[in-house]
Amino acid sequence: MLKIRKSYFSINRLIVFASVLVLLASCKPDKIKVYSSFYQYYPLAVGNYQIYNADSIKYFNSLLSVKPPDTIRYQVMDSIQSKFIDGTGQISYRVQESVRKNSSSAWKIVRAFSRSINDRNAQEVDGNNRYIKMIFPVAQNSNWNPDLYNTTDSAHIISAKYTQVHVPYSIQPLNFDSTVVVQLQSDTNLITYIINNERYAARIGLIGIEHDSVFNIVDSINAPPAISGFRFKQTLSDYGPKK
Q1: Intervals of the chain under pLDDT 70
Q2: In sequence order, which residues have a C-beta less than 8 Å from that of residue 156 and are 6 or more positions away?
Q3: Average pLDDT, the chain
Q4: Could you report the per-residue pLDDT of 102-147, keeping only the tens digit for each?
Q5: Domain boundaries, the chain
Q6: Which of 81, 137, 156, 202 gives the lowest tally of CB atoms within 10 Å of its CB?
Q7: Cα separation, 46 vs 141, whole angstroms
Q8: What CATH class is the domain 41-240?
Q9: Around 107, how many Cα atoms within 13 Å sit in the side-chain half-sphere?
Q10: How many angstroms separate the CA atoms of 57 and 67, rounded?
Q11: CB of 89 within 8 A of CB of 68?
Q12: CA separation for the pair 216, 62 (Å, rounded)
C-alpha cells in the first residue's frame, strides 16, 4: 500500500509539473509579443528615415471679409544620423529634419533633435526641452504630462493620452497592421475646433500629424460659418530601410 501511495503522489507531482510547463510554454510567447509591441511604435536605429507630405493651410476670414486660404505643400524627412550617450546617461539618437518643395527638389536641413526610449517612456529632446512622446505600456486612455521635464507656465501645460491603440490604418498605398494615436490637445465645440494628434505605426514610428486650430465665424443665423485659423497635416509617404 505504501508503494502504491508513493507512486500515486509521484504521478501527481509529475502531472502538476507537466501542467505548469505547458502553462508556461503557452503564456510565454504571448507575453513576449505584447511586451515587445510597446516599443515597436518608437523604433530607433541609425539609418532609419521617414518622408512625409505636409500641407499647411492658413485661413484669413473675418466678419468683414472672406478670403481664399493660403495653402503651402512641401515634404519633410526625418533621418537618424547617429547615436550617443546624453546628459542623463541614456542612449539617444540624433535626428536630422530636412525639407524640400517637392520630390524633384534638393533637401535642406532645418533642425536637429534627439530621441530616446526606456522601459517607461519614449522621449524627444528639442533644444533645451525634453518631451515625453509615449508612455509604456500602451493602453487605451492612458494619459501623461508630455511637458513633465520642462519648466512651463501652468496655464500652458497640456496632457496627452492614447485614444486609439493597436488598430490597423492605411495611407494609400501604405498599409499598417497596428497603429496608436496620441492626442495632445482637444477642444471642440460649435465655435472652436482645436485638436493635435500624432499617429505611430509598429516598426516604423511616427506616420502622421494632424493639427487643427480653427474658429467658426458666424455673421448671421442663415449664413454658413467662415473659418479662421490654420490647419496642418503631415502624412507618411515613404520610409526606410524597409524591414
Answers
A1: 1-38, 62-65, 152-157, 186, 188-190, 217-226, 242-243
A2: none
A3: 81
A4: 999 999 999 999 999 999 999 999 998 999 999 999 999 999 999 8
A5: 1-40, 41-240
A6: 156
A7: 32
A8: mainly beta
A9: 13
A10: 12
A11: no
A12: 10
Q: Per-residue DSSP letters for 62-103?
A: -SS-----EEEEEEEEEEEEEEEE-TTS-EEEEEEEEEESST
Name the grid cell of 52.
512625409
Q: Which residues contact 172 (CB under 8 A, 6 or more apart)?
A: none
Strands (DSSP E) contained in 101-139 are 108-117, 121-126, 129-135
Given the C-alpha cell 539618437, which residue does it identify? 93
Task: Give me 60's grid cell.
Answer: 484669413
Beta strands in 118-217 (DSSP E): 121-126, 129-135, 143-144, 160-171, 174-188, 192-201, 205-217
DSSP state of 24: H
Q: Which three cell numbers stand for residue 33?
A: 509579443
* Three cell numbers written together for 76: 519633410
Beta-bridge mates of residue 167: 179
